[in-house]
Amino acid sequence: MHDHENNLIEKSKQGDVESFETLIREYQTVAFNIAFRMLGNMEDANDVTQEALIKVYKSIKTFHGQSSFSTWLYRIVTNTCLDELRKRKRQKAYSYHHPIETEDGEIERDMEDYGNSTEEIVERKETIKSIQDAINALPEQHKTVIVLRDIRGFNYEQIAEILDCPQGTIKSRISRARISLKEIIEKKELYKNPYV
Asked: Do domains 1-101 and 116-196 have the same CATH topology?
């Protein structure tokens, strides 16, 4: 499989579009999912994923295999998401009160199954919505590590490579991000139930 991927990479470097499409096929879903979690809506996620994959195609000649191809690709996707978030901030087009689009099927594949009774499903969807809202409220750096570690399940080494940071930095960032996430969720719960 590794040789097959290397062969596709070499052909892609020579401009073979068909080989490139085959090469990125298995990574596209995760790439979109990272973008969806980072940006909060499907339309932006689609646009940014496409933009990132075009960047991957245009810069594939610079890929020399220091990391795995998937790590290199996800680094480009993550950086393109961060560029988009910064652009939003500059344009002030992003509103805190803007509702987050959800895609329950995708979220449920991302998160552990908690049970199937109607009550549990309703509670679970409410929990998923709270988590998504809270992730959206996090600063960029915290949002990125939560999406990569807790939603997508990358290990510390992979995240360090994707974000080009030392593992120690990643570990402390994840720890701080989880505390922030918990605080945001608790504040939202208190706001919803002030007399609890």
From this structure: no
